[in-house]
């Protein structure tokens, strides 16, 4: 789009000018040419300008003479040309020293050359290159539009950019997934020159979708490559917006279907088959219901976090070529997946990726037992939701909790919907212990919990409680008297264990109760 000082000095009308200092800046690009005879305020000059001046008033002011070159260098001018013979008969030696120091090209214009000759000589190729750039930009735009409309999507756009520039193009989305890469990386490996990579963010409506990167050997890089890169990033942003709209429609259709299933709406096999085929979900085989919750302190963030989980799940499922159904609930997400190892690997990758993206936010995942028929997903969803509610008692993020691995809490599933049902399970056995502890400041309930957790091992229990074995024996005797259950009896010991579990579950589900 412009020319350098080096190129300008090679123009026919510039052959009589002379570079006298600042050769280190010969590759500075000239953005524009400015003629100023009386230079009062250098701060008005802009980066990349090429200044032509007679130096009027410099010879009479020592201070202006000393600050002339440094002030121009501060404004990052591309270069300066001084027309000698009018006000400066020769260029001061200090100018040469300072121009070399700041690498600011200093050019001497002899008296016989007019300002207009220099201005025209430099501006003409700049304007020509700008016209070339506009034409190239238009051609790029048309080729990129063709690529985008070819239904090739993001890979087609990246591929066209690689073909236009001869570089290596990679597209990484906001989640860190490499969406596509095009161009020969082997060519870069064989090229011994230094590589440079230009990265452009892909944004739309203040949302960041990813980063588009173009890598080429430094000697092969052209300004027009940046033009192509900008065009490609704009089309990638439009493609992401389109993808988001399509995903939102698909999400809504899947959600409606899942909601109908969860509401027990009757469907014929033909209708089920048709709906599943339209949504790309396999009807055959067993199915899993997966409940996912993000732990956030600020509930206003929940919607955005749900969207992050959905986007991450979509990226992972695309990689595994795995279809799923989805329904968003106020406090969690419900996914329906085929019951196989691929789905389990996908969920494990979901937790791993989430931990890398949002290490400060715990992700809880609970799985139902497999259901044989898709309409049976109603009971499967209840199992997954129950496991998610009990998750803090049994697992820690990023573990995946399966309903079948709930350590006996699944036997409390029929009672969890009402706090009174849970209360009836534990209160007759444990309430006497709680009242005794409260009245006499004892720890019978805690002792029972630790004793059962230690599988009835007295030594380990006393060590865990930091009490003498005689104290433990006394407490265990009190527990048996208050509950009427013998701890040596395995069946009665299991009932006590179940009562403790029911109490913990009630405290988890209904925290206002004791």
TrEMBL record:
Family matches, as Pfam families: GGDEF_2, HTH_30, PucR
Domain of life: Bacteria
Domain PucR C-terminal helix-turn-helix: 444-502
Family, similarity comment: Belongs to the CdaR family.
Domain Purine catabolism PurC-like intervals: 7-126
Record protein name field: Transcriptional regulator
UniProt domain CdaR GGDEF-like: residue ranges: 269-390
